[in-house]
Design brief:
There is one protein chain. Helices cover 77% and strands 0% of the residues. By secondary structure, it is mainly alpha-helical. It is rod-shaped and about 55 Å long.
Length: 47
């Protein structure tokens, strides 16, 4: 049974990491859409 629990824990960790990365990607997409909606672009960004 311990192997099954360990496998489930690994699956949960991988799923959590995937959700975290997807949330970050969604944030970047939303930010790009906001900049685009304001009429901005990459060349207009300050460093």
């Amino acid at each position: 049974m311990a192997v099954v629990s360990e496998h489930n824990a690994e699956n949960n960790l991988v799923s959590a990491k995937k959700e975290f990365l997807n949330a970050g990607a969604d944030l970047l997409i939303a930010e790009a859409q906001w900049i685009h909606a304001k009429g901005g672009g990459v060349e207009g960004q300050e460093k």
